[in-house]
Amino acid sequence: MRHAVIALSSAHRFQQRFAAAPDKYDEECFTLQQYNKAIQHLRNNATDNSYSLRVALITCMLFITLEYMRGQYTVGNAHLQYGIKLLLDISAPRPPSSMVPTVLSPEEDFAYNALVDAYVRLSIQSAMFG
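Above: the chain's sequence. Below: its structure in token form.
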């Protein structure tokens, strides 16, 4: 998550600082390097526990914001759809006979509820602004 935050903050800083600069190659490279590190860490630390799912969902929100800030709206919307799908998958009720354990308890999990609210807001903003 740290690398995703660094990528997002560097994109914001460089966007504000070098908006009129014709050559933003170095700044964009740094942002993309941090973005790639965030993706690598997510892949390396992917497990099926509630902590990992929260980290993945929060990092996905950072990716959405980063892509929107970079003007990559299609990629940002793809991240948004993946995040919503992940939320739906982990909150889907499991039949009592299922051997798959429930990862999150939506009724009791404050972080889960906050993530749902954030994704709903991102979806509304995406729909409003096309």
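The chain is about 75% helix and 0% strand.
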